[in-house]
Specification:
This protein is mainly beta and 308 residues long. The protein is built from two helices and 35 strands.
Amino acid sequence: MQISYNQIEDFLNCKGIAFSIKGNLQSNYKICSLFYPESNGFYFVIGNNLNSKIKKSLILSSTNFEISKDNAMLVINENPQVVYYMITDYYFGEKSTGEVCKTAVIHKNAIIGKNVQIDSYAVLGNCVIGNNTIIKSHSVITDNSCIGQNVIIEPHCTVGATGTAWAMGGDGVKIKQPQLGGVIVKDNCFLGANSTIVRGSLNEKTTIGENTIIAPGARIGHGTQIGKSVHFANNVVTGGNSKINDFCFVGSSVTFRPKVEVHPFTVVGAGAVVVKNTSKENSLLIGVPAKETTSKNNLTGVPSYKRK
């Protein structure tokens, strides 16, 4: 993907982000990652270390450090990672096309908002879909599901899958409880590919709070309550009726025992198995079974949330 310097400058000016320029500017740059450096790229840098392979590139930074003569730098007083993501999302972020594929199957009573994109072979039951939402191919949204606005549901997701709950009868036969609840996915959420959200049992609503990101492969148990601005990395599993409060950050392949609750701002390390409630906010859970410690500030790979 290419971006022009003029586009970057226009965005910064539009958002009122003050900046200064040093070095030799090029007209156009390639959107690049620091983990895959190329010449003539557009990068953000936190700190003052720049890969020597980066040449003829534009660096977005809050630190005014020395660069080679063929590079250029935009120095800002804000978090360069956040501003870089804002720029790239503005110009390249996925937006709904508003198109509904002919092979999609949609219930006659489904309520579909404005500018909703529904891709090939998606199946929608008697549900509600908010404005500007994207539902990708082969995803299933079952009855009694409510999807908010500006949600992205990646391919092969199921929202409202049937869970299992049963009691053992006297003759050793399992007596199943019907799964009668629903699912609420609030605004601005992302559901990664191959994720399954089990609907609530009885009158429960499995709920995912606004601005939450769930990476591919999640399995969300019935009645789970996920707060706002939560992050789930790949392959997270929650047992039924678990509660993950606002602003939690959960690493890859974490498992939550049914009915467990973690406080807001909890960080759960990759691979942990959470079997009991946390005792306070801002905890760090690590290990199998997970042990609770106090979370340090600026953990690697974990965003810093601003508290109101």
